Every structure is written in structure tokens, then in C-alpha cells.
Amino acid sequence: MCVRRCVITVGDLGEFGVINRITERLPQVAAVMLGPGDDAAMISAPDGRVVVSTDLLLEGRHFRRDWSGGYDVGRKAAAQNLADVAAMGAVPTSIVVGLGMPADLPLTWLDALTDGFRDECAVVGAGVAGGDITRCDLVVIGVTALGDLGGRPPVLRSGARPGHVVAVAGRLGYAAAGWALLEAGAPVDSAVLQEVVAAHRRPCPPYAMGPEAAELGASAMLDVSDGLLQDLGHVAAASGVRVELDPRSFAVGEPVAVAAKELGADPLEWVLTGGEDHALAAVFPPEVRLPPSWQVVGRVVAGEGVLVRGREISRRGWDHFR
Amino acid sequence: MCVRRCVITVGDLGEFGVINRITERLPQVAAVMLGPGDDAAMISAPDGRVVVSTDLLLEGRHFRRDWSGGYDVGRKAAAQNLADVAAMGAVPTSIVVGLGMPADLPLTWLDALTDGFRDECAVVGAGVAGGDITRCDLVVIGVTALGDLGGRPPVLRSGARPGHVVAVAGRLGYAAAGWALLEAGAPVDSAVLQEVVAAHRRPCPPYAMGPEAAELGASAMLDVSDGLLQDLGHVAAASGVRVELDPRSFAVGEPVAVAAKELGADPLEWVLTGGEDHALAAVFPPEVRLPPSWQVVGRVVAGEGVLVRGREISRRGWDHFR
């Protein structure tokens, strides 16, 4: 009779069994010239420059295993780094993953996590090139993403100039609304509410819009990870300009509006200060004709900081140490 | 009167204060075309391919703050990834770092950690290109290192052939001896014992020997991180050969011999199974004339596994989940 031991765990397989288990689930991808199994991986970098971004995700802080399954955590962990690479105007080529986990972690959870990495990478044609595993009381995930600029200059935060327009691509406020619903323990019984909870669990960054913005001639760009106000504050500071947003120009998504009504919250606050959707915010010279993927939300003027015209709103974003 | 609060901590600075504190300590390096401060860094990759390796280091598992200061932890964390890059035959160009830390971490410890990253990178001319910080109860460090092959093919684990010779560069057994002394609580009162303890705290990988071995025509190479026997087992398995080591050919370092005498241990066991010195082990065709940086320790024959001739020895290395 199996009672406790019918769940196969990471510890049952041991280090090399786990490594094999992970690598067997990963497809070969053209940009990954040498994948897992050696001291290091080898990635194609045809541009002669490589864009690289890294993030650390901790159980209990960035995700909860009772709120998000392994698959969602894997997709989210990959997404937030792939979005950083796209926000430079680059096409992601690969990720490498450092993974700490308890020996009693169910193997099904690890499999799902691996599949999440794999599938989020597949969205942009990237591959999981390698990694490192170690034992840890908590699940700790360090993801590093690489990308190729295809000959384009990188789009920095510092190129915004007065007269330029500010635009966003992708969703805003969805993940914040989903998190608020979960934290309030509110019933999530409609498809529309499930959509924001799903957005909290798994962002859906507009990857292709990064290289698109670069091709269009964006003067500045970043991915919205700490909230639009705070992140545009980085653009304002780096560029030495003021960003003026017009809150009337924001199309608040219906699921965000419904969740706000459910909780008696202000949907615009989520849109302006919620992170984790990994939308892209970019600044363009005024002569650029923007495709419909980009929604104009404000403009750049002389000055400093970020101003929301016609309306006061908290500018607080997320500070990991405050 | 300041009693508890006279130690300035990471939490006192907040997230962006900490990021500024770290980046101010980092010099500009030629290969890092765009350093910290944007969504991603940009690294020179003149070869058109980039070598990448990642590792996760956890307080309590990979280091102890009561045994190692921040400076040593930084050097060690950087070293183990830079050594992986060198073991492919590549020249390291940069690292990126994901850093989790408690809010009450003294700022002096963080400064020392940063300086450790910086100084270990400087050994190979690499730079700290960027990173991510987050709050965590423990110090968690994810390091990813990049490198450039300079037009050379990567040296894999799979190229060893019968008739080739096995050689090592760098120190073996030093870190294991130092760890054993610390764990036994043995007095470390002589310079010779302090040397192995220092080796545990801060490895000294023979970085330049990686590209050197590639230029010499090495058929296989790896860095010794889990113990020579276990790591050469990976070469044997990947190449489909047997590795025969001659224990009489190992020059046991004097500090290792002294530490073994102190603890009544077998120094050869540390040499053959101790990890963390990040020596390089390589296999060369027999016609290659090896410079003195490489010490021949065995040969490749038909068969499988790793055999230590004339002597039985435990083959156990380090398994993170057993």
C-alpha cells in the first residue's frame, strides 16, 4: 500500500536523473547550436552583439504554488525575461535557467515547469539552452534570456525627446486585477474574471512589437514590469524629459473593469501602476505612423517626471525592499 | 545613541538605491557595450556565437556567511561560471547576476560581494553587465557568464578517443581540504592550512588554459566542479570511452597533504573526488606537445567508465539531491 510515497519526487530521481528528465522534454531549436549537457551552451549571435537579461523568481514572493501551477510559473518566468529582450528591439534566441527546488517537489510539477519554459520560448522561436539545478527549501528560478538585434541599434530608455509620442502595446492592469482578486479571496466564477486571474498567472507580452518598434524608429522603449508610471519614470529620468499621460486615452480592458467593479477598486490605478503584464511602452518621433498594435497614451515634453493630466493618481510602483 | 541601527542595511537604501550602489562600483569593460540600467545589457559577440553558462548559489548550501565573507562569495560565484565558459575554450566576456537578499543584509556585505564579482571578472577581462535584485530570506545568487570562442570550435565532452592523453590544469583537492578543516572545526593556525581554507572560500581556476587547450587541439574538456572522477565520468560517457587514471602521476599539493595529515584523511581522495577548485581537465591527441601548465594524469582506452589503476577509491562525487 502506497500512502505517502505514491508521489514521485525530484529527490527520487537524483540530480542527474532530474537533468535528463528536463532535457528530454526540450526540443532542438535552430538558434541553440549546443544545448544542455556540456559545461556551457552555445547560441547563435549573428549580429555580433548579444542582448542579455536576467531575473530571479522566488516562491512566496513572485509566485505561490497554491495560486499558480508549475506550467504557469515556467511560462511567467520565461516571459518576463523574453520581454526584456524584446524591449531592446531584439528577437529572443534562448534562455538558460538556474533552478533550486526541494527534494520533495513532485516530478509532475517539475515537468509542468519545464513545459512552461519550453512553450513560452516557442512563442518567439527561442529554446531552453541549458541550466543548473540545486536543492533548496523553496523553488527558486533564475532565468537569463539572450537575443539578437538583427543589425538594429538597441532601443534604450534614454532617447525620448520633447515632441515625441508615448505609446503602449499589450495589456495593462490585467495581472494586477487578477492578483487583487486572488488576494481578496473573491469568487472567480465568470470567464471574464478568469481572464485576469490567468493574466496574473501567465503574462502575454507583445514580443513581436519590440523589434517592430525598433524598425519603426522608436526613440525609447521598455517593458512594463513595475507599473507604467514607475517604468515611464525611468524613461523620463534617463532621457531628461517629462512624460505626460492622458488617462482618457487608455482603453481599460473589459475584464479589468469587471474585476474593479467586483472589488470596488479603480481600474485605472491597476492600468497605471500594475506590473507583471509585461506590456511594452515606447516613445516615437512624431512623424512615425504607428500601426494599430500601438496605442498612443501620451507625449513627451520638456521637464521631468511623469504627469497624469487631469487626474491625481498614486505613483507608487513596486520596490522590492520597501 | 545608535545601538541596533548603526549598521546600514540593504533595506535602508531601497531597491533603486541598492541598484545604484552596485552599479557605481562596476568599471566599464570593452566587451560590455551596454551595461546596467536598461531592460537588458548588450555584449560584444564578435565570433557570431556566444557561449553561456549559469549557476545558482544558495546561502547555507553553497556558502555560509559565517565561513565566507561577501568578497569571497562574489569571487567564487563568478569564478565557477567563468570557469565553465573557459572549459569550452572560450574567453569570458561578461556576467549577469540575479541577487536575492534579506533587507537586513549589511551594506558592507553587499559592497564586498559586488567587489568580488568585479575582481574575479577582471582576472579574465570580463565585466558585470547587469542583473536583478529581489528580497529573499537567504542570500541567493544566480550568475550567468557569457564568452566568445574567437573562431575556434567549442571543446565538448564528447571528443575523447582511445590513445588520447588526459591532463589537468589548476589545483585539485585544495577546496575539499579547506572545507574539511572548517567542518571539523580544526585550528587553522599555519599559513599552509590557511591556503586550503582560502581555496575553499575562493577558487583560482586556470582560465587562460581553456582557450590554450582549444588552440592546442584538445579533443575534450570540462571544468572540475563535482570531483575529477565524477567529472571525467561525464567525458567517458559522452565520448564512449574509458578513462584510466594513474594516481602516482598526481602531484598532491603540499597544503593538501598537510591538511590530510592534520585530519587523518587521505589526500588523494580529496584530489580525485573534491570539487570546487574548478581545475580544467582535458583530453589531447597523443601527438600534442603539452606545455607545463598541463599535467598528464591518465589516458583514454576503449571501454567505459573511469578506472584508477592500482588503487581502489570511492567514485562518489556530489549529487545535489542525494
Automatic annotation (TrEMBL), chains A, B:
Enzyme class: transferase
UniProt keyword annotation of S-adenosyl-L-methionine present: no
Binding residue positions for Mg(2+) 1: 54-55, 132
Catalytic activity: thiamine phosphate + ATP = thiamine diphosphate + ADP
Signal peptide span: none
Entry-linked Gene3D superfamilies: PurM-like C-terminal domain, PurM-like, N-terminal domain
Ranges in coiled-coil conformation: none
Residues annotated as binding substrate: 62, 276, 318
PurM-like N-terminal domain: residues covered: 37-147
Binding residues for ATP: 131-132, 157, 225
Keywords: ATP-binding, Kinase, Magnesium, Metal-binding, Nucleotide-binding, Thiamine biosynthesis, Transferase
Protein's GO biological process: thiamine biosynthetic process; thiamine diphosphate biosynthetic process
EC numbers on record: 2.7.4.16
Pathway: Cofactor biosynthesis; thiamine diphosphate biosynthesis; thiamine diphosphate from thiamine phosphate: step 1/1
Ligand binding (Mg(2+) 4): 39, 53, 84
Positions with a binding annotation for Mg(2+) 5: 226
GO MF: ATP binding; magnesium ion binding; thiamine-phosphate kinase activity
A family per Pfam: AIRS
Family in the record: Belongs to the thiamine-monophosphate kinase family.
Miscellaneous comment text of the record: Reaction mechanism of ThiL seems to utilize a direct, inline transfer of the gamma-phosphate of ATP to TMP rather than a phosphorylated enzyme intermediate.
Protein name in the entry: Thiamine-monophosphate kinase
Gene from which this protein is expressed: thiL
